Amino acid sequence: MNAALSDARSASRTTKLAVVGAGAVGSTLAYAALARGSARTIALLDVNKAKVEAEVLDLQQGLMFTPQAEVIGSDDVAVCADADVVVVTAGAKQKPGQTRLDLAEATIELTAKILPGLVEVAPDAVYVMVTNPVDVVTYAALRISGLPRERLFGSGTVLDSSRLRVVLAERCGVAVGNVHAYIAGEHGDSEIALWSSATIAGVPLLNWTPFPGAKPLDEESREAVHREVVDSAYRIISGKGATNYAIGLAATRIIEAVLQDEHAVMPVSSLLEDYYGISDVCLSLPSLVDRRGVTQNVPVPLSDQELAGLRASAESVRAVQKRFGL
């Protein structure tokens, strides 16, 4: 086959996204991916046959209003065959007052049950873990699957970073797109804000002068912003039972970065290897995401306080790993 024909066939190859779990997060993620045109085929897998078939039918009946796509679903893992990206959302549901780490045992057991079958039917896929507690589940999934760290990672603090940017944008009176700031560490209570590298419209956040009438960004205000970000999921769960819209959109952006080979920098959760001396734990840090998965953790400059916070977050997650023999 000549090179031109090979390239043409490669360029025309359609993409397939498999979403494991048709609950609130999985079905919302599938809807977001469909509406955005993220993949040519969207496959839903769930043990509840009636539920997954109903979700698929509902999505299919909106195909007239979306970019060209195919939506399929089943309770049989074969529906995920040859997927380019597999997103795992299945897991125990977080209840009001329950921390993400409280969910660990049941979710790890479920991951061990479903992941080998997924890898068998989609051996070349990039795997994105969304199920909480995502850092511990991602670490367990790497052990269970045997996949390289590049091809299996967690959604991490992509959502938390969006929450941070939204709150900062509101306080500063600027568009969200003008705020560049990351949450790092655990996707949970020990997560940290990387204030020292944050910028607003190119201005270092720590040097930002508020517009007239806007709130200051002093240390007390930054702490309040951070607390609002950490507590937001608990507020949503208390009010409506689950978070689904924002995480669906966040996961869809990660999927697009992979499928479109974007080389995007995103704070996903991956296995660290001597990052500021931190190893053998999955944490979120700004990382390069492309068709290969997570290819590199960006060496972001950290203040002494941020480095201490990141190390404390690592110890918090590592303690949970040890509790479950990981």
Keywords:
326 residues; alpha/beta; Rossmann fold; L-2-Hydroxyisocaproate Dehydrogenase, Chain A, domain 2; 6-stranded parallel sheet; 3-stranded antiparallel sheet; 42% helix
Short summary of the structure?
This protein is an alpha/beta fold and 326 residues long. It has helices at 3-12, 24-36, 49-60, 104-121, 134-145, 158-172, 219-240, 245-259, 304-323, and strands at 16-20, 41-45, 70-74, 85-88, 126-129, 152-154, 179-180, 183-184, 192-193, 199-200, 203-204, 264-266, 269-271, 282-284, 287-290, 293-297. The protein folds into two domains: 3-154, Rossmann fold, CATH 3.40.50.720; 158-323, Lactate dehydrogenase/glycoside hydrolase, family 4, C-terminal (L-2-Hydroxyisocaproate Dehydrogenase, Chain A, domain 2), CATH 3.90.110.
Could you characterize what this model shows?
The strands form five sheets. This protein has a six-stranded parallel β-sheet, sandwiched between helices. With 326 residues, it is of the alpha/beta class. Helices cover 42% and strands 17% of the residues. Helix 4 links the parallel strand 4 and strand 5 (126-129). It is globular, with a radius of gyration of 20 Å. The chain folds into two domains: 3-154, Rossmann fold (3-Layer(aba) Sandwich), CATH 3.40.50; 158-323, Lactate dehydrogenase/glycoside hydrolase, family 4, C-terminal (L-2-Hydroxyisocaproate Dehydrogenase, Chain A, domain 2, Alpha-Beta Complex). The protein is built from nine helices and 16 strands. The chain has helices at 3-12, 24-36, 49-60, 104-121, 134-145, 158-172, 219-240, 245-259, 304-323; strands spanning 16-20, 41-45, 70-74, 85-88, 126-129, 152-154, 179-180, 183-184, 192-193, 199-200, 203-204, 264-266, 269-271, 282-284, 287-290, 293-297.
